[in-house]
Amino acid sequence: MTHSLRSSRRSLRSDWGGRIPLACAVALLASTCASSGLRAEVAATIAPGSVASASIERFSPALDAVIAPGAVIEKVAGGFQFVEGPVWAFGEIWFSDLVGNKLFAVGGDGATRLLLENSGGATDAPHSEYPGSNGAVVDRDGSVLMAQHAGRRIVRITKDMAITSVIERDAQGRRLNSPNDMVFAADGALWFTDPAFGLAGFDGSSDKEIPYNGVYRWKDGQLTAVIVDLPNPNGIAFSPDGRLLYVSNSGPEMFVNIYDVKADGSVGAGRRLISYPGPRPGDVPDGLKVDSRGNIWTSGPGGIRIINPQGKVLGQIRTPDIAQANIAWGGKDGRTAYITATGNVYRLRLAAPGLGSLNVNQSR
After folding, report:
1. According to the model, what pLDDT value does residue 335 have?
2. pLDDT < 50 stretches in the chain
3. For residues 180 and 195, is the Cβ–Cβ distance under 8 A?
4. What is the DSSP letter of 64?
5. Structure confidence at residue 50 (pLDDT)
6. Residue 263 falls within a domain, yes or no?
7. Fewer CB atoms inside 10 Å of the end CB: C or N, the chain?
């Protein structure tokens, strides 16, 4: 979930006519690669898909093994205020409207269904303009763990929409800020980010009880703050072998960090995977995912970068929206990428599958 307010998104829309021009995106990527020590040959091509102005920009031939030439970006659903939290659950794609505070699904028939009102929790307490549910993952039993902004907690949801609270407070008994995104580690531990994006006034909220915006590890009922020095941690993912942790920071400085994961669940010092020039109101590093080849798919200014484990940008995906917020792997074979972007949801077939959560059967 992006830190910037919708007013910033409106100003960006009016400045650039509702989308980021291709030339600006290419220039942005070139400056980003230079600032992070990465090099990429910029050779953008517009995919001949069904979505006007969507593009798959190829900077390396290696991208062909991830996204086949000729692949197209298709629109799955639209008309929302700000979509987030995509997850493949029970054989369909779930996603939330973070502003509208609703949870939706699109099944095999292509129809959009409302699953849950107030998916982010009750809104009787003060909250930001983003009260809805956010990041979500599938657990080993097939149920879904989901972050609630207004509720300031992580809950478990079953197929019949029964909700139970899982994590609400830290080890000192303080209420969480507003859990944002999450991922399972290979040992079954749940890791999640907890910025203040759901609180009224964000970090300035009088309701904020924890003095930092942390990255947490939850294992065997114990919650540990693993990283406490990031201003606004957001997206989170592991490498396929679980030895590397990736965390995006939405601002003020915009970047994605890499951390070595130790056997005891702690991490080493963070180092940069990629840095973004700023400011970019309404378009910041947000959700990220890792595919089965170890490539990092990270949202950020100008689109979704696909970066190989060695740090080379292989390509970039853009939709006509102000910002691309998050990604989920789905389909029975795990070879479909679902992208939430401002008010719309898209899908893209892949040549290589995404990375499943733990040992969960992704065809559930």
Report:
1. 97
2. 2-49, 359-364
3. yes
4. G
5. 61
6. yes
7. C
204 secondary structure, DSSP code: G
The span from the CA of 315 to the CA of 55, in Å, is 10
**Cα–Cα distance for residue pair 12/349, rounded to 1 Å:** 30
What is residue 125's predicted lDDT score, i.e. its pLDDT? 78
What is the per-residue DSSP string for 51-95? STT-EEEESSGGGGGTS-TT--EEEEE---SSEEEEEEETTEEEE
**Structure token pair of residue 210:** 């924890």
Domain that holds residue 95: 6-349
- In the chain, the amino acid numbered 242 is G
Tens-place pLDDT, residues 7-48: 333 333 322 233 333 333 333 343 344 333 333 333 334 433
CA distances, 54 to each of 46, 298, 348 (Å): 7, 17, 11
**In sequence order, which residues have a C-beta less than 8 Å from that of residue 109 and are 6 or more positions away?**
none
Please give the structure tokens belonging to residue 95.
């996603």
Reading across the β-sheet that carries 55-58, which strands appear in turn? 43-45, 55-58, 313-318, 303-307, 296-300, 288-290
H/E element, 32: helix 22-35
**CATH at residue 135:** 2.120.10.30
Q: Closest by alpha carbon to 135, among 294, 265, 326?
A: 326
Q: Give the total residue count for the chain.
A: 364
The per-residue pLDDT for 313 is 97
**Residue 19 forms part of a structural domain:** yes
Q: Spell 137-169 as b/e; 16+ CB within 10 A means b.
A: bbbeeebbbbbbbbbbbbbbbeeeeebeebbbe
State the total domains in the chain.
Answer: 1
Write the single-letter amino acid at 216. Y
Phi, psi (deg, nearest 5) at residue 69:
-55, 140
The strand pairing partners of 321, in sequence order, are none
Is residue 42, in this structure, part of any structural domain at all? Answer: yes
Q: Is residue 154 part of a domain?
A: yes
The alpha carbons of the chain give a radius of gyration, in whole angstroms, of: 18
Could you give the CA distance from residue 5 to residue 129 in angstroms, rounded to a whole number? 8
Q: Phi then psi for 49, rounded to 5 degrees?
A: -95, -170
Query: Is the bond preceding residue 320 a cis peptide, omega within 30 degrees?
Result: no
